[in-house]
Amino acid sequence: MLTGFIAFLILPDSNKYKSTLKDYRSDPKTVITYFDLDGDGISEEIRFHNSDLYHYVMVYVNSTILEDWYLDGLIGNFGFADYNRDGSFEIYVNTYYNDSIFINQINPWSRHSDSTRSKYVDRYTEYSGKIEKSGQFEGAVDLNADGTNDIIFSFLAGQSQKPRKIAAWDIYNDTLFTSEYSGTGILGLEFFDGNHDGFLEIFGKTAAFENCKKDFPYPDTMAWLMVLDHDLKFLFDPIPLGGKTSSLQYLPVKGGSDYIIALLKNEATGASSSEILLFDMTGVQINNRPLIDRSPGCDFFLLASQVADENFHYLITSEGTVEIINNKLEIIKKIRVQPFAGATPRKIDIDLDGTNELIFQTRIYDEFIIYRDGFRHPVKIKLPHGGSIQNYSINMYEGNKHFLCFYSEGYLMQFDYLQNDLYYWRYLIYIIIFTLIFLIIRFYFRYLSNLKFINRTKITELQIKSISNQLEPHFTLNTLNAIGSLYAHDDKDKADFYFAKYAKLVRNTLIHSEQISHSLNEELEYVKNYLDIQKFRFNERFDYTVSVSEEINLDLTVPKMLLFTFVENAVKHGLRNKEGKGHLIISIESSEKKYRMTIGDDGIGREKAKEYSGMSTGKGLRILDEILDLYNKLYRQRIIYTIKDQYDNTGKSAGTMVIVELPIKSI
Known about the structure:
CATH architecture of the largest domain: 2-Layer Sandwich
Radius of gyration: 45 Å
Distance between the termini: 27 Å
Structural class: alpha+beta
Number of strands: 41
Helix content: 10-25%
Strand content: 35-45%
CATH class of the largest domain: Alpha Beta
CATH superfamily of the largest domain: Histidine kinase-like ATPase, C-terminal domain
Oligomer: single chain
Number of helices: 8
Low-confidence stretches: 5-10
């Protein structure tokens, strides 16, 4: 588990695709985009400039100005199309001049006076003194099957009311035809021959914005199912659906099925009243499926498969769920993706392989995710300047290099989008990294194990030194002489009693000498045996009491000799030379997240004990200090002690007190 976590932190990016920022610049008055206008595989840079004085379009070829075209009126939306299919693309721009809307064609490769032309679309009115730029370039398709493309713009005015229509400019015949007068506009157009009559029909999205006058036909107080034929006439009478603030997205079902799939969102009444519907090409409803289990505020939309013969669609929610549904509205499969903002994703062929990638904006305003077809191989992009994206484009260079370009609020940002070279080597890289991490961790734990062994060995050696102090010949001989004296005076029971205690003391010392710790209860028993023997040796010259609180866990593991060292010092240096009878108190209690052990005696005190030359070398405490230090390194259990001198009311030494503290976390 540790290996996996470390590997996760240091593994290189192994996604199949990657993207990095390559260029970032600002031009607040000019929208900058890229398009290969002449079909040579290298993009031209096209700039659309609006200022108080000038409105112009400028084309750069290899960083050199090719030409600029000044236009009458405010520049709106734009696009690129090859209307006559000669391999060269023109620029199409809608403009707003005086009270009129125009569609303008710019042919950058023409050196004649007819390099620009324009077509009147409709009148407009300002709202609150401002022009509503309502036009949207929708593409170029051959609606009338004459072999040339018609330029399609949709217009959806807001509070200014007009225009709300679709306009198709047949440049070859220099005619403009528009959709019928309506209070509801259609955006996001899709073109497909749904009824197999040899002509394209038009599908899209309508919404109930509720900002048109009531005298409009098909007012925007609800969403409408509006399918147009190639003459921009209604294929069937528009069908009202939904209510206030509703929206309807409707797409053709491809793959040989003459159906229309529609997504109805009733935002005012909640997601529970939203549904997916299926119509035939005459507008008759065939099927529907309510959308349930959608949280409030969840946005969703439909996306058709990009494979021509596949007739399934993706139902995508902003919560990060993608449902693949067939033409019976059944869910075939579910996919989890990252949640995103409510904006419809952008479809653009970034790597020029003929299949569009999808660009989603996440719920972080400056973060986007690119998905390949089927929502595979996600790549995150972090924009240096966030905000509303006004334009996406592909900047192509020589050598098959290309950048994905974002234009947002005066800032142009260019990113590469490439296959990651590490992707095909990722498994070998994983094996190498995991092997190295495993070996490093194994070496580290082996080092820790060796360190623990060394520390345990040192503790054992120190405790053996302590044992040699306990069983020094002087102590052993005096104890045995005292017991032998009892036998000599025929006090066999008492002699047996103390001999048993001495034997137990020796047995516990020697048999468990390889252990560096034992239970608190064993430490107390060891100390009691020692004190009983010393009382016997010194002819009952001191008493002792042991007090342990009920909440104390006697099974707690402690270093050997922890209490004994202080008890031994109290007897040898405090009580042994006291005039009169002494007393030793041992108490253990729980206090403030720790165990508090107190060893107190009323002996002669440390200062007086120094007068008895040769009685103390301090060796026992030095050994204990080393043991506790190593014990802390081994078990991360810091045990501390303090030694305090006791005085009576006259300032005379009244003994010594030792306080030992064990942290509660080690219990």
